[in-house]
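Annex B, item 7. Sequence and C-alpha cells for protein A, then protein B.
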Amino acid sequence: MATNSAKGSLGDLPAAFMNLINAQMKLSADLFESLTGQALPSTGDLTKTGRKLVAGSTGCHPRSGCCTIPPPCWMPQPLGECTSHVAQCKTACVRFVVTNCDRIKRTISAEVSGPAAGKITLSPTSLALGPQERGTISACVSIPDSAPVGEKTEYLIWLRGCKDWYFRWTVSVGTVGIDSCHEIEVCDCPDYVHHWYDHFYCARPCPGGGRTTGTVGVTDPATGFRPAAGNG
C-alpha cells in the first residue's frame, strides 16, 4: 500500500525524467554526427574497444606482455594511428617533429604510399639533421567543397632515417569543423643494445632506409656498421 502511494505521489515525474535523458542522448548523437560525419559509437563498439585495450592487442599488432618478443629490428616501426575530422574547404595536417639522436649527420626523407598519395603535400620532403638536431616535416591535405560528408580516406606516411617509420592517418569529412593539425614526435635514434631476442643478421645500429647500404666486410663510415654475409 505504501509503495502504491509513493508511486502515485511521483505521478508522471519518472517518465518525464527518462524522456529528458533520451532527448539529451539524441542531441549528443546528432551533434557528434554533424561534427564528424559518422554515427556515435554504440555501447557495444566501446565495449569491444575496451576489451582490445585490456587484451593488449589492436589490429595487426601482437598482444603485449613481459615475455612478448617484439617485431624484428629490420621491420618498419609504427608511429601510431590518427583520425582528423575536418569540413569541406578546410585543411588537415600532421606535423612530424623529428630528432636525430645520433652522433653523426643524417638525412630523414618522407613519402606517402597508397592510391590517395597524390592528395598529400609534404613540406619539406627531406631533412638534413646534424647530431641531436631537430626538424619538422608537415603532411597536409586540402578538403574540396565537393567532398561528401562522411567520406574517409586513409593515408600511409613513411619516414626513413636511422629507422623506417610509418604512420597511418585517416581524414574524415564532416559538415562542421575547423582546420586540423596534429603533432607527432619522432626520436630517430640508433639502437646499440643487443637484446636476447634480436636476430644476429640485424643491421645495427641503424637498420632503416636512411643508412648507407654497406658492402660485406667493409665498415660503413656513417654508421660504423660492418655488414657480414647475409646482412646486405
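Protein B:
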Amino acid sequence: MLKTEQNARIHLIFAILVASFAYVFSISRIEAVVLFIAVILVFAMEITNTAIEKLLDIVNPESSKTVEFIKDAMAGAVLVAAIIALVVTVLIFMPYFNKLVI
C-alpha cells in the first residue's frame, strides 16, 4: 500500500515524526497509548478506504454517482480520522512545547 498510495506515505511520515517527538519528550505511557491509537486509526481508515475503492473498481468498472459517493465518503472518513489524530497530537504535545518556549 505504501508503494501505491501517496496518502499512506504521508501518514507514515507524520507517524514517524510523532513517534520521534514522543521519544524526545519522554511522554507518559497513557499519552503514548492515545497517540498510538490515533495513528493506527488513520492507517486503519486508509487501508479500509483503499480496499473499498479497489473492490468498487472491480465490481463496477464504470463510474456511477453511487460509486463516486461511496469513494468520497470513505475519503472523508480518512480525513476525519487524520484531523482527530492531529488534534490529539497537538493536545498531547502542547504542554511539552510550551516548556521549551517558556
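Comment on protein B: The radius of gyration is 17 Å.
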